[in-house]
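Sanity check. The docking grid for zinc ion depends on where the pocket ends up, so I'm generating a full predicted complex first rather than guessing from homology. Inputs follow.
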Amino acid sequence: MIAAVALLVACAFTITVCYIGFCLVFPWGTCVRCAPGGKNRTCRACNGTGMRPRLGWQLYVYLRRLYR
Ligand SMILES: [Zn+2]
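Predicted complex below; grid placement will be based on this.
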Protein backbone atom coordinates (compact mmCIF):
# COMPACT_ATOMS: atom_id res chain seq x y z
CA MET A 1 0.00 0.00 0.00
CA ILE A 2 2.77 2.42 0.94
CA ALA A 3 4.64 1.51 -2.23
CA ALA A 4 1.55 2.35 -4.32
CA VAL A 5 1.19 5.74 -2.62
CA ALA A 6 4.89 6.44 -3.09
CA LEU A 7 4.60 5.55 -6.78
CA LEU A 8 1.59 7.84 -7.15
CA VAL A 9 3.41 10.72 -5.45
CA ALA A 10 6.47 10.12 -7.64
CA CYS A 11 4.28 10.18 -10.77
CA ALA A 12 2.53 13.38 -9.71
CA PHE A 13 5.87 14.98 -8.89
CA THR A 14 7.35 14.00 -12.26
CA ILE A 15 4.32 15.32 -14.15
CA THR A 16 4.46 18.60 -12.21
CA VAL A 17 8.17 19.06 -12.89
CA CYS A 18 7.66 18.27 -16.60
CA TYR A 19 4.77 20.74 -16.81
CA ILE A 20 6.79 23.50 -15.11
CA GLY A 21 9.70 22.84 -17.46
CA PHE A 22 7.35 22.96 -20.44
CA CYS A 23 5.92 26.25 -19.22
CA LEU A 24 9.39 27.74 -18.84
CA VAL A 25 10.42 26.68 -22.36
CA PHE A 26 7.09 27.57 -24.01
CA PRO A 27 5.53 30.24 -21.79
CA TRP A 28 3.04 31.29 -24.44
CA GLY A 29 0.08 29.19 -25.42
CA THR A 30 -2.55 29.88 -28.02
CA CYS A 31 -5.65 31.69 -26.90
CA VAL A 32 -8.43 29.15 -26.41
CA ARG A 33 -11.07 31.77 -27.08
CA CYS A 34 -10.06 33.01 -30.50
CA ALA A 35 -6.93 31.24 -31.81
CA PRO A 36 -8.64 28.12 -33.24
CA GLY A 37 -10.77 30.32 -35.51
CA GLY A 38 -8.04 32.84 -36.27
CA LYS A 39 -7.06 35.92 -34.34
CA ASN A 40 -9.81 38.09 -33.05
CA ARG A 41 -8.76 41.69 -32.52
CA THR A 42 -11.50 42.33 -30.04
CA CYS A 43 -10.72 39.26 -27.93
CA ARG A 44 -10.48 40.35 -24.32
CA ALA A 45 -8.74 37.19 -23.10
CA CYS A 46 -5.56 37.84 -25.10
CA ASN A 47 -5.95 41.49 -26.15
CA GLY A 48 -6.09 40.44 -29.81
CA THR A 49 -2.65 38.80 -29.90
CA GLY A 50 -3.93 35.23 -30.16
CA MET A 51 -1.42 34.20 -27.48
CA ARG A 52 -1.84 33.77 -23.77
CA PRO A 53 0.69 33.06 -21.02
CA ARG A 54 0.25 29.58 -19.59
CA LEU A 55 -1.05 29.08 -16.09
CA GLY A 56 2.30 27.64 -15.01
CA TRP A 57 4.07 30.70 -16.37
CA GLN A 58 1.70 33.04 -14.57
CA LEU A 59 2.34 31.07 -11.38
CA TYR A 60 6.10 31.34 -11.94
CA VAL A 61 5.89 35.11 -12.45
CA TYR A 62 3.69 35.42 -9.36
CA LEU A 63 6.09 33.41 -7.19
CA ARG A 64 9.10 35.31 -8.51
CA ARG A 65 7.40 38.58 -7.64
CA LEU A 66 6.52 37.22 -4.22
CA TYR A 67 10.08 36.28 -3.30
CA ARG A 68 11.74 39.45 -4.40
ZN1 LIG B 1 -7.93 35.56 -27.72
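Relevant for the grid: The first strand starts at residue 28 and ends at 30.
Also worth noting: The chain has two helices and two strands.
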